[in-house]
């Protein structure tokens, strides 16, 4: 504010140039500090999120992709299982399941991924040991 009131007393020698290496280093370090603070706050917010504490009562039992941005999911709330539709803008309750889907404790519930894994292991075992016959229960 003082330079605006008394323009005659301000000299051009007191201003620093942006090309001064110390000012460039200072700007760069300040930028790194601000970006570091943003990442630290994002990590803390994700790590101590209140929403992640509610996962003990609501579990995703099964999920299937229905479109590019749509999913059909079976969730378990307590002892009840519900079928829901999930889009990028909406979550809709479709129905309450009368018969619950049984979740196996070993994690393999017969999904396509597990079937592919079993077929790949059988095929690889056949290539390593040609005398080994894979179980052809699908044929």
From TrEMBL:
Return the GO cellular component terms, semicolon-separated.
bacterial-type flagellum basal body; plasma membrane
Q: Which domain of life is it from?
A: Bacteria
Q: Which InterPro entries match?
A: Flagellar_biosynth_FliO, FliO/MopB
Transmembrane feature ranges? 24-45
Q: Which GO terms describe its biological process?
A: bacterial-type flagellum organization
According to its UniProt record, where is this protein mainly located? membrane
| Family to which the UniProt record says this protein belongs | Belongs to the FliO/MopB family.
From the Swiss-Prot or TrEMBL record, give the protein name. Flagellar protein
Q: Which organism is it from?
A: Alteromonas profundi
């Amino acid at each position: 504010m003082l330079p605006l009131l008394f323009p005659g007393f301000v000299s051009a020698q007191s201003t620093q140039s942006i090309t001064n290496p110390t000012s460039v280093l200072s700007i760069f370090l300040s930028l790194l500090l601000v970006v570091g603070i943003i990442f630290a706050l994002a990590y803390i917010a994700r790590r101590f999120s209140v929403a992640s504490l509610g996962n003990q009562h609501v579990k995703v039992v099964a999920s299937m992709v229905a479109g590019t941005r749509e999913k059909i999911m079976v969730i378990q709330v307590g002892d009840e299982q519900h079928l829901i539709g999930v889009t990028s803008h909406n979550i809709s309750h479709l129905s309450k399941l009368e018969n619950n889907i049984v979740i196996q404790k070993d994690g393999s519930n017969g999904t396509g991924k597990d079937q592919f894994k079993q077929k790949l292991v059988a095929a690889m075992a056949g290539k390593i040991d040609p005398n080994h016959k894979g179980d052809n229960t699908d044929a």
